[in-house]
Amino acid sequence: MEEIVKKEGVLGLESPEQERMNLYSSLDWKDYKSQLRNRVRSQDLHKYFHLTESEKLGIQDTIRLNVGATPYYLSLSDPNDENCPIRKIIVPRQEEAFFSPEEAMDPLHEEDLSPVKGLTHMYPDRVLLFSNHECSVYCRHCMRGRKVSDSSERMESEDLERCFEYIRDHSEISDVVISGGDPLNLSDAKLDWILENLERIPHIKICRLGTRNPVTLPMRITDELCKIIESHNTDRLSIFCNTQFNHEKECTTEAKEAILKLLKAGVSIGNQSVILKGINDDGESMLRLHRKLLEMRIRAYYMYDPELIPGSRGFRTPLAKGIQIIEYMRGKIAGMGIPQFVNDLPGGGGKITLSPNWYLGFHRDSRNHVFRSAVRGTYHLSPEPVGSEYDDFYPSLDLETWEKIRENLYSVTRGLRLEEEGF
Ligand SMILES: *Cc1c(COP(=O)(O)O)cnc(C)c1O
Ligand code: SF4
């Protein structure tokens, strides 16, 4: 092993470890601008990773967004382990080169639902504002890969002004989700200008910053940035932040510092993770991630299924995984650490939530609801109130299930089983 390292040195090819040391020592680590200037691109990946054949093909033939990673985020990845979760988010693999028949550039029809460039108006009271196309790290799984990292998708100030005008003209809108790209990749001055414009619209009460910078470039959360955010976080406007941690390896001391700064600026922070094959697609990984997030004072918000975008097959998991993950988590962590499992419906149907089946149905004869305990796996009865007119609202418990579980039912009478209660 030592010999190989030496030989590579002689040939002018340093080991990934050495190349990384060189990179890290060449920049001002805590300065976010220095981190951005020194981002790792497609052609640099071979220096920082022992690439697999699949990765080499992915880098060469990808149909997805550009490669880009901050030295900070790179430092969380493993140069030798091809299964490292952070590495899979940074480095394209062969699966990225295939456009599967079920995939589409814009599966959520965000463009059809766009009244002006950069704005998606799907729900009456909320809009999605595409503020810019840049990010600190270009995540291989990005669902907005059709626009992100593509400089032809640049939003000029006039484009943003047209968005503000639309929002101003639609008084039913009260909530603006700023996303991109990543709004925290805008300059302080531009972000200040956007927030100021939104704050001036009387019917806008809520603004959400969708940003992955606390994860990929925590040094971006500077005191100056926080001051700007805080200055618009006022009686008139409430600023929230939705971030996207996907793996416990991302929960570093630096990330926590960034989060605490945002909290001090009065920003409420939620996490929207994405279920990614081989990265976090099991209950234990998601549980560990969300435990770390609570330690960082981040509440769970959503957990998404990856969208049907071109080249996404390497990340997609069966729908069942999401339901199983939530089922696994319930009872093992505080409720504020359990996300809602969300599917954004293809074709512009909006988001829906899916949850495990803890409700087995209504036993009509005894007018009892039957539940399965998430903690113990036992079955429990709860009666519908006397006089309720909602009996028809509930799905019937099928009799076969009833026969199977009736011997083992728990009810309000602790310790007493059904038989003893005379059903
Ligand atoms: C996700 C999304 C929102 C915000 O939805 P919430 O469920 O309120 O977080 C708003 N507009 C569009 C188009 C979206 O996709
Ligand atoms: S930070 Fe968000 S928008 Fe940017 S590439 Fe990653 S997932 Fe996409």
Automatic annotation (TrEMBL):
Name recorded for this polypeptide: KamA family radical SAM protein
PANTHER family: L-LYSINE 2,3-AMINOMUTASE, LYSINE 2,3-AMINOMUTASE-RELATED
One of the record's GO molecular function terms: 4 iron, 4 sulfur cluster binding
Any Pfam family matching the protein: Radical_SAM
Organism taxonomic ancestry: Bacteria, Pseudomonadati, Spirochaetota, Spirochaetia, Leptospirales
Family as reported in the entry's similarity comment: Belongs to the radical SAM superfamily. KamA family.
Gene3D superfamilies found in the cross-reference section: 6.10.140.1170, Aldolase class I
Range of residues in the leader sequence: none
Modified residues (N6-(pyridoxal phosphate)lysine): K351
Alphabetized UniProt keyword annotations: 4Fe-4S, Iron, Iron-sulfur, Isomerase, Metal-binding, Pyridoxal phosphate, S-adenosyl-L-methionine
Limits of the Radical SAM core domain: 121-339
Cofactor(s) this protein cannot do without: [4Fe-4S] cluster; pyridoxal 5'-phosphate
